[in-house]
């Protein structure tokens, strides 16, 4: 018997969703048993790279399969990233409960037609944001 506290429009859906449990548990078992992350103590660079590559591949599979993109597992990293890029770029602006959906050109037009004072305020915030991002990337590797 399966019980759920959540509202269900279709009782069969809960059973179908529960069927995913065995798949999830099997993937966790494979990662724990065959990646052997806890016992990995080698300091040899080649072995560390090999372990990281295997772990990355496993994590990539875990990401691609649930989103229905399992066919990308056979592609190169460059091609996979290219195929995962969004086909449409939209800029969302949220202000006081309102949301604007703008194309990059519509956003550019909006910014360029603002009053001088508003443009200066946006420019200052943008520069501050860019500086904060630059500071975060100064040490991309662990010390």
Outline of this structure?
With 143 residues, the chain is mostly helical. The chain is built from six helices and two strands. Strand 1 (91-95) and strand 2 form a beta hairpin.
What does this 3D model show about the protein?
The chain is mainly α. The chain has two domains: 12-84; 91-136, no CATH class. The chain is built from six helices and two strands; from the N terminus they run ααααββαα. The chain has a two-stranded antiparallel sheet. Strand 1 and strand 2 (98-102) form a beta hairpin. The chain is extended, with a radius of gyration of 24 Å. The chain starts with 10 loop residues before the first helix and ends in a 7-residue tail after the last helix.
Record field, number of beta strands: 2
If you compute it from the alpha carbons, what radius of gyration comes out, rounded to the nearest whole angstrom?
A: 24 Å
Largest sheet: 2 strands, antiparallel
The residue fraction in helices comes out at 55-70%
Structural class: mainly alpha
- Oligomer, anyone? single chain
- The residue-averaged pLDDT reads 78
Strand percentage lies at 5-15%
Q: End-to-end distance, in Å?
A: 52 Å
Q: Which sequence of strands runs across the widest sheet?
A: 1-2
Order of helices and strands: HHHHEEHH
